[in-house]
Amino acid sequence: MRFKTALLAIATAASLSAIGSGNATELVVNGNFDGSNYGQIGWNGNTLQGWNTTGYNFLFSAGNDDYPGVTGTYGNVKLWGPWNGSFNGLGASPAGGNYVAADGAYGVAPLTQTINGLTVGQKYNLSFYWAGAQQYSYDGITTEQWKVSLGNENYSTAVKTDGNHGFTGWTQELMTFTATSTSELLSFLAIGTPAGEPPFSLLDGVSMSQVVQPATPTPPPTKVPEPGTLAMIGLGLGVLGLGMRRRKSKQK
Known about the structure:
Blueprint: H1 2-23, E1 39-40, E2 57-61, E3 70-72, E4 75-77, E5 98-103, E6 111-115, E7 123-134, E8 142-150, E9 153-156, E10 160-162, E11 171-178, E12 184-193, E13 199-210, H2 227-251
Antiparallel strand pairs: 1-2, 2-5, 3-4, 5-13, 6-12, 7-11, 7-13, 8-9, 8-10, 8-12
């Protein structure tokens, strides 16, 4: 009997999990930055599916970020890493594949995407991986940060300090936004210092879905006594009443 009960509990939990995951519809298009148009995004006809930018922002992969680099407005751009003499741990994010690197001190402009299918007043979770790095051939300590917004609601990550020729490592961030319209602009703006030592904020694994509210637990049903039990209670009350009458008669 206990074994059957345990199996039933496991099956119920699995069903609830499947229902919850089924409701979490992904709203971001190309949040892993798939594609092979490496280089400066929005420059010389280089596009990135789902995203727009006019800033000094680049699409890298873990295979070309520190060597051989990619092409931008002012020539080759790459980051400090193991292939150019800095064993700082530069590598792919936990999401894998490509990532965006945005200069936070030069040509600063956001990476944006319009999110559709929102419900006004509904909360949405936004998650992403990010890190800080420095452009190759420059020296010094830098800082990196992302300012993130959905519509008029804004949040910022913590500021990461990156050592000379460094890499901060990847961190996963979670933010919750409340929709005020059925379509709103999602924006990632890199903020870095100082201007003369190009600080790059890296971004990958962008995902957004509706916050699924937990189901309200159903209260247990009120236990109603069976007819036989009610009859026994009635008989007991009757006997008790008869005994009290006899006691009163004796006292008189």
